[in-house]
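anyone seen this seq b4? input:
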Amino acid sequence: MSSRQQLPRGAEEGAPEQRQRRLQEAESTDWGGLLRAYLDSHRASLVDSLRRLARQPFGSFLTCLVMGIALSLPMGLSLLLDGVERLGGSWQRAAQISVFVKLDVAEVEGQALREQIAGMPEVLNAEWIGREQGLEQLQQYSGLGDALKELPDNPLPAVVLVTPREIDKAALEGLRERLAGLPGVDLAQLDLQWVERLGAILKLGDRFVFGLAVTLVLALLLVVGNTIRLHIENRRAEIEVIKLVGGTDGYVRRPFLYAGAFYGIGAGLLAWGLLEYGLNWLNQSVVGLAALYDSDFALGGVPLDDALSLLAGALLLGWVGAWLAVARHLRQLEPQ
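predicted toks r here
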């Protein structure tokens, strides 16, 4: 009797299932081994990049410092613009609409008119200035106090100072026309020239910050690219040997990408520290100046979300600059 005939029937039927199971286990083991090898390769590249940067601490610090200064300039200007917009109670005060009430309107009716105006969705605040209060302010600030006291009657009307929510020329003109048509209103006046000047100043500031940011981003890419190029030249012989024994471009590129990312993270942290120190140093003078005008205005620090965005952007810039540099120079390092 042959050996095949001596096998139990169940063993013959189970053999294909066992072979299939062993094949699946082998495939899963291969995938696991590939994943571990991939992670080990990344870990080795990361450690190697850190070790090489640590060997040149002064040069690495200067590179990060240059990048940090370039990153801090546009964000610092942007934070200063945000602070200036809050100065003096807000920029919207320059776009106030003066609503002059008719002389025959009583105080109670005028207060009701103020409440009606304050309830409009386009209005941020509405302040009532009665006739007597207006005369007192004119006597105090005009220098004509004695002459105004000789007047038989108060010629000034009551006024409602309206502060809009948004600064937009077309919207403000529409709001002014709506206020002028209210019962009891004699005139609604808006200095559109101030609004146009304010809008032009804010637009100029935003464009300047945007242009500066774009220029400095390009400069940062050049700084990172030139630094990585020097790293590549220092390791030219090593890279040629790696490619000669079959090393892929991805394997060669990986340490330089980690180096660029580390430069970016270091630059982001330095930029954050420079901004915090600079704003705190400038805030001492700003607080003293604001106190002279009876204001509690003060510059704030760097918001956490802005700081995290700064770090993420710096890391991305470092990585992109390194990738561009390696992609350009790697083609020149083919083994002869």
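The chain has two domains: 42-88+202-333, 91-197. The beta strands are 97-101, 123-129, 159-164, 185-190. kinda curious what u guys think
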